[in-house]
Amino acid sequence: MTKSERRYCRLASNQSDPDYAYWRLFDCLLRHETMDDTLTTELAELFPGATLDPARKHLYQTLMQRLRQFDGDRRIDVRIGQLMHESQLLYERGLVQFSGEQLARAQRLAEQHERGEYAVLVARQRAEQWVRGQFDGVSLDALTAHHANIDWQLTKTQTAVHHAALYETLLLRYHTNGTVSTPADTLKLNDLLLEEYQLLSRQKEKSNRGTGATARSFAMQQQHLHFQSAYLRMIGDEAGSLVVYRELDALFQQNPMLWAEQPQYYVQLLDGILVDLRMLRQYDQMPYFIDRLRAINDLGLRQTVAYIVLYHSLLIMVDQGLFDEAVAILGTQWPDSVVFERGLAQRSLIFRTEMDLLLVRLDIGLGHLSVALSRLNRVISRPVRSLPQTLYTQIRLMNLLLHARLGNAEYLTYALRAVERKPPYQGKRLPSETTTLVLIRQWLGGRLRANSLTQPKEIGDSPADRQLRQNLDLGAWVKAVSK
């Protein structure tokens, strides 16, 4: 809870006397960030021999009620619902004209903010009131136009939901499989690409009768551009993806009112731009978009955005070998390492793994090999159920490369055999993976030289290969172990 929310909860309650048990429980919980022995001890001292379950339940209900009131006026969905409720109350008391005015306000809000599902609910409430009033003052043309508007809103909403489903499916494939490594992988994406093309064609056909307006709302336009950018990134066209992202950025800048309440797609946009810029090694352009990420002030995304900002800020420095600058950034943004690790543990498995691997690279660059190995071992012990192939491969190879830096030849002899067996994922090895294993074999045999990285004929140039080589720092590893 923010400071403003805590203050509002107290001021809005008639029972703010500190003697009330649930407010003393509230103050106690605010003093502790986690459930630990210290909290248990303090609760035992504050409430000796008491059962806290009734106070806890009452505190929860009170806080939820106050938070709904505090946040309600800022949420369009809540405001529309309140107007519909007020209209119903007025109608039941015979104030039909005032009831209609509230519904008209709700309808305008729903249409201005492209809440098609709420526009349908408002329209249905108005039609039900007409039925109860035996259509007093309602013409056949007005009723027909009203039904046409409902059908139009349903069409737009259904199309937007379908488009969102396509984008989410593509995004799941990206998080599961990563970027493509073979032409066959690209062909597997054609089903979604074809379905999106067909959906766009149907959008053009389904126009608003009488007005000629197409069904492409802001939500559908941004879903289309998100889909295209994700597809281009998956097939390795980072430059094309970046062009689409800039077009998407212009769309967001032109319609701030339509996404201000739900900025998660805007965060995805900025994160996608930063990923593409990094893959294109355009590090000088990344700070501008990082600053725009910092400017997002959404309570639900605040911590998520903070970690994304840190991740890309560290990437800029680590990729360029500026390790001391990366340490300075980490110390400035997260001076408390305990709080940092606790917050990182709450992120998604993929992001948590990517951040940990980046910190392993940072520790290696600083020469803290034991610290790097300790963090990497924690990564290895996690489940790999949701990790894409490239990320899983990176973990295994980084483990081998790190043990080579530590000179653990005996461990590598056995670990290398395990890695060289049939990989646990489907498909062939990436050329960069094969190259890395060859280099480690050369190191074990004492045949590794400073120019060994340039000797293999097949190093691979697929998107997955380029991403893997960039994250493994193979050039720096060869220089370090061949001295």
Low-confidence stretches are: 208-214
Question: Outline, from the CA principal axes?
Answer: globular
Instruction: Assign the structural class, choosing from mainly alpha, mainly beta, alpha/beta, alpha+beta, or little secondary structure.
Output: mainly alpha
What is the strand tally? Answer: 0
For the record, give the distance between the C-alpha atoms at the N and C termini, rounded to a whole number: 54 Å
Features:
483 residues; 72% helix; globular; 24 helices; mainly alpha
Layout: helices, strands, pairs:
Layout: H1 3-11, H2 21-30, H3 37-46, H4 53-72, H5 76-92, H6 96-112, H7 116-132, H8 140-177, H9 183-188, H10 190-205, H11 218-234, H12 238-254, H13 264-279, H14 286-294, H15 302-319, H16 323-333, H17 337-344, H18 349-366, H19 369-380, H20 389-406, H21 409-420, H22 431-444, H23 463-472, H24 474-481
Helix pairs in contact: 2-3, 2-4, 5-6, 5-7, 6-7, 7-8, 8-10, 8-11, 11-12, 12-13, 13-14, 13-15, 14-15, 15-16, 15-18, 16-18, 18-19, 19-20, 20-21, 20-22, 20-23, 21-22
Report on the structure:
With 483 residues, the protein is mainly alpha-helical. The protein is built from 24 helices and no strands. The protein has helices spanning 3-11, 21-30, 37-46, 53-72, 76-92, 96-112, 116-132, 140-177, 183-188, 190-205, 218-234, 238-254, 264-279, 286-294, 302-319, 323-333, 337-344, 349-366, 369-380, 389-406, 409-420, 431-444, 463-472, 474-481. Helix 5 runs antiparallel to helix 6, helix 7 packs antiparallel against helix 8 (140-177) and helix 16 (323-333) packs across helix 18 (349-366). The longest helix is centred in the N-terminal third of the chain and has 38 residues, at 140-177. It is globular, with a radius of gyration of 29 Å. The chain starts with a helix and ends with a helix.
